[in-house]
Write a structure and sequence with these properties.
single chain; 468 residues; alpha+beta; 9-stranded mixed sheet; 6-stranded mixed sheet; 27 strands; 18% helix; 27% strand; binds fe (ii) ion; metal-binding; PAPs_C
Length: 468
């Protein structure tokens, strides 16, 4: 007995020592992992990551995203600096000699005293699923070749791995985040980007040359795997004192998305299917109240999701609905009041956001009972509600956010201000594994992780068990 007590005491002591590194509060875990509090500087424009490819008018800033609703299409975008050149893409399947051609469009825009280079967008459709394609852009001595792999055919049990990156910017830390993601053995096949791309608006007159340099920086990943875009506040580029009154002008000229194929009227909100996932991208910085275009679209969109075809329902929006960091605290509250009820009703598995430059994961919680009189305005555990993950820790020049609401609210399961990326690894229709990777760690170390039980599957099991 005495031995047992010593044993229990030792285990308790050991647990205390282990947890000593972590500060436990009312809610979950606030990591005390201490990263140095230095604000990262942007990489100089002459850094090799920003290098302009050789050759006259050589294509640069090459990036791809999904080009249709099902995953058989790709939008290929690139920039030519000197003259329009050609908007043609030549592409062929890995095991085929047959080279196909597609011709896109070229656009330019002006932003105060900045004139954009020539921005090409070419949509390729009706590709084979699960196939490696090579593609070539540019002409003459300035041809450049890349490749991508199309996703497997849409279906409920199809494994697929998404990377999560947000608020990336173009600092030395941004470069570490991207490198860490690229070399992660979990091998993300597409990135869900949770907004705030270049941070060009941090420069005088929102120096759009930093949009160009950012696109050269990330080309090494996004030319080879699609990044699914969502817009953050740093994409708004609203500068009325200099006559720039069209929100999202640089972003929407540079980053085309397949919004029309999901019946959306704006590139700022849309949906795609990819393997066993249904991804809904929303805009935190566009009108979203009742009767607005975004609201109407979402209300017609959610009932269309066929969970027996795509069991994993993922929402991406820049501003988190749940965050317990002091900076940006409750900025997502009006959006939460507006939409959380539908996320719960339609059993959204996970909502990924950025904006807060840190990492946080909630438990499965909901807070939808309030009706102005009943006082029921506290988040409660709800096994069939989404998990909310904030992953705005890409490494931009604004630095990390350290100040947290104290004590840790009960809805918050884990929070830590470190740079990193996430991997959402769908195993089958019932389970997915999420891991958050700090830049400083090897891949064997997961800063945070969670097994996801698919909510559609789980709720159908629950109803089966209660019907007996
Ligand atoms: Fe943001």
């Amino acid at each position: 007995m005495g031995t047992n007590r010593v044993g229990v005491g030792s285990v308790y002591l050991l647990a205390c020592l282990i947890l000593g590194a972590l500060r436990s509060c009312n809610g979950g875990i606030s990591s005390s992992y201490a990263r140095s509090n230095s604000i990262s500087a942007d990489m100089p424009l002459n850094s090799d990551v920003f290098a302009v490819p050789p050759g006259y008018n050589s294509p640069q800033q090459v990036h791809i995203t999904q080009g249709d609703h099902e995953g058989k299409g790709v939008i290929i975008s690139w920039v030519t600096p000197d003259e329009p050149g050609s908007s043609e893409v030549i592409y062929w399947a890995e095991n085929s000699e047959l080279k196909k051609h597609a011709v896109g469009t070229v656009v330019t825009y002006k932003y105060y005293n900045y004139s954009s280079p020539y921005i090409h967008h070419c949509t390729i459709k009706n590709l084979e699923y699960d196939t490696k394609y090579f593609y070539e852009v540019g002409i003459g001595n300035a041809k450049r070749q890349f490749w991508f792999i199309t996703p497997p055919e849409v279906g409920p049990d199809v494994p697929y791995t998404f990377g999560l990156i947000g608020d990336l910017g173009q600092t030395f830390d941004s470069n570490r985040t991207l490198t860490h993601y690229e070399s992660n053995p979990a091998k993300g096949k597409a990135v869900l980007f949770v907004g705030d791309l270049s941070y060009a608006d941090a420069y005088p007159l929102h120096d759009n040359n930093r949009w160009d340099s950012w696109a050269r920086f990330v080309e090494r990943s996004v030319a080879y795997q699609p990044w699914i875009w969502s817009a953050g506040n740093h994409e708004i580029d609203f500068l009325p004192e200099y006559g720039e009154t069209e929100p999202f002008k640089p972003y929407t000229h540079r980053y085309y998305v397949p919004y029309k194929s999901s019946g959306s009227t704006s590139p700022l909100w849309y949906s795609i299917k990819r393997a066993s996932a249904y991804i809904i991208v929303m805009s935190s910085y566009s009108a979203y109240g009742m009767y607005t275009p975004q609201y109407k679209w979402l209300m017609s969109e959610l009932p269309k999701v066929n969970r027996s075809e795509t069991p994993w329902l993922i929402v991406v929006m820049h501003c988190p609905l749940y965050s317990s960091y002091v900076h940006h605290y409750m900025e997502g509250e009006t959006m939460r009041v507006m939409y959380e009820q539908y996320f719960v009703q339609y059993k959204v598995d996970v909502v990924f956001s950025g904006h807060v430059h840190a990492y946080e994961r909630t438990g499965r919680v909901s807070n939808i009972a309030y009706n102005i009189e009943n006082g029921l305005c506290t988040p409660r555990n709800d096994g069939l509600a989404p998990v909310y993950i904030t992953i705005g820790d890409g490494g931009n020049q604004e630095g990390l956010l350290y100040e947290m609401v104290d004590p840790q609210p009960r809805y918050s399961a884990y929070r830590e201000p470190s740079y990193g990326h996430g991997i959402f690894d769908i195993k089958n229709k019932t389970h997915a594994y999420f891991a958050w990777h700090r830049n400083q760690d090897g891949y064997a170390v997961e800063g945070d992780s969670l097994w996801f039980e698919n909510l559609y599957w789980k709720s159908s099991q629950d109803s089966l068990s209660t019907s007996f």
